[in-house]
Amino acid sequence: MINSNPNGMLSTAAASSANTAVQSPGLKTYFKTPEGRYKLHYEKTHPSGLLHYAHGKTVTQVTLAHLKDKPAPSTPTASSSSFSTSSGVRSAAARLLGGSNGSRALSFVGGNGGSKINGGNSRIGSLGSSSSSNSMGNSNFDGKGSYLVFNVGDAIFISDLNSQDKDPIKSIHFSNSNPVCHAFDQDAKDGHDLIIGLISGDVYSVSLRQQLQDVGKKVVGAQHYNKDGSVNNSRCTSIAWVPGSDGTFVVAHADGNLYVYEKGKDGANDSSFPFVKDPMQFSIAHARYSKSNPLARWHICQGSINSIAFSTDGAYLATVGRDGYLRVFDYYKEQLVCGGKSYYGALLCCAWSMDGKYILTGGEDDLVQVWSMEDRKVVAWGEGHNSWVSGVFFDSYWSSPNSEGTEETVMYRFGSVGQDTQLLLWDLEMDEIVVPLRRPPGGSPTYSTGSQSAHWDSACPVGNLQPAPSTRDVPKISPVVAHRVHTEPLSGLIFTQESVLTVCREGHIKIWMRPGVVESQSNNSETLSSTSFKEKPLFSSKVGSSSYKL
């Protein structure tokens, strides 16, 4: 996955040498966990000389995209499977993704689709300096493999996850605005699998494979929605495909509105919606005409929607916003189900567990909040960050070292990153959570009477939303790992089967390999031809469709 020699196998020595050179002073290249040591193997970034901030500086988000085999010639692009962290990510496909590409069980080649040639780094916009990019300038390019899609300045950059090259292999520049959010669809059927939201409110859907085939620096073959802010001119804040919907996606905006789009409809057929009568109340308006796009507007809250996330089955949509509330909706019934307030300030990120039982949130109160869908309340607060929490995500590939296959007690591993530049890893076992007993004479738990954010005290919505609980009523958990991984504030993280990816807001990505992965790959390099690929994976996955096997 990281480096390769001519035989296509992992070169750990080269990776270690490269990391020593690029690692920032004062930062360790590993961190320890109960199950072993995570090691930094390589980094991805952008060529700083080509960045333009004419439209305002943006925070980098990263999406992990996996392209499958190219389909029959009659179909220009292929279906796909992926993961998105912005938020992090952010569709459920992300947890289905391992780090290896192609059909091989151990395809640790130097680039997607071919072995690495030591000919230097590929140039942005020119894809002809390595074997993995030589074929990208023609329509026969297969493109199969794993890619990182991330935004910096006015550009979207695409890096080959399985290459040791630090620089991206492709850049797409936007002349009218800066990209701020993006998502990749695991089930795209007509080629358009990548959606991109801009500061201007404009939205594009494109084929990732088609972008890789083109040698230019402009987006090609795109469908353009909300052109020039014709429907909503406020900033896009988060974007997501609806799981299992065959082409439906939602876009959240900074004015508290969320729009539902259908990529199969003409983006020029913009809809008009009535004014929001009460910005404090949740409301939905549908387009008058069947050909209109977007199909519907959901007014979620007063102030910005900061992040959105769908449950794995697509049944529920979680949103977090500037007003500090987590809201959970039944997406198909278009109903608010439940939600609650942060301890203080805005919420910035959210993520679902794979089984849909828990939701993580993080924000300006420096806490990681664990929300139970079954109990409809906060069941734990994670204390450990020293500044705002900017990214949270469950690790669906991790399993407890002491589990031994038993299912009596389920333990969850999740991660969080913050503006304190730290990555924190947490273990959550609900049977061990002790709820503090502090009840008033009436017998009900005591909750705080108001928000700690004075600006929003008068903006408390009504309905199924709970106020912020008192700190004495919520169990506290501590991280098992706290590690400073970047010099700049962090903006997101991704878990794959082999690694943990962290990204800072300036556009630098680090890949940390899980304990035992590198050693196992190195030990297997000499016996690859005789290895059976039907043995148990090194890390058990909660979803078994895309794991490589050793």
Automatic annotation (TrEMBL):
WD repeats lie at residues 340-381. PANTHER family: AT02583P, WD REPEAT PROTEIN. SMART domains: WD40. The keyword Protease does not apply. Pfam families: WD40. Keywords: Repeat, WD repeat. This is Catabolite repression protein creC.
